[in-house]
Amino acid sequence: SHFTLIGFKNDDILVVVSLTAMLINICSFIMEQYLLEQRLQIIKIYYKRGESLIQTLTALTPIYGQHNRPAKSTIQRLVKKFESTYTLYNVYVPRRQRDARSVKNIAAASTSIQDDPNLSLTRRSQLLGISVTSLWRILQKDLGIHPYKIKLTQELKPLDHFKRREFVK
């Protein structure tokens, strides 16, 4: 399907921009994910064709089709990754260890609640040295407790309902 995006310039000239062209430009930044078998096939063809990108693209055209074959940059990245890591698997990138919801913090939050259940979330997070958001997650996800704030309201008297109805009239 083909969509068009319609807009106006300052001099009221209608400008029609093809949305499909915009999507193609956006999608070109995203590397396509190929199955391991497909990656192996691309690498084999690349080396069989004498490490030539053009010949590799020509050989991949009957397999993937003219418009669905991997781009030059995709083949280059795949070969570069294969030659540097000697694998076709995605390389694991180590991430920062999350330690806010550790067993120690969960135990500390649980004891804190048993000691003083009326303490506010903000004050409790300051005492425990845990961020408010992390403490909120510990209480809800790990301990099954839903923190709330008790709000003081004015006591309703018997005449209040009558006065409210009179005020509305």
From TrEMBL:
Keywords: Membrane, Transmembrane, Transmembrane helix
Pfam families in the cross-refs: DUF4817
Keyword Transferase found: no
Residue ranges occupied by any DUF4817 domain in the UniProt entry: 36-85
InterPro entries: DUF4817
Transferase is among the record's keywords: no
Membrane spanning stretches: 13-36
PANTHER family: HTH PSQ-TYPE DOMAIN-CONTAINING PROTEIN (PTHR47326:SF1), TRANSPOSABLE ELEMENT TC3 TRANSPOSASE-LIKE PROTEIN (PTHR47326)
Protein name: Putative LOC100572414 [Acyrthosiphon pisum]
Species the sequence originates in: Lepeophtheirus salmonis
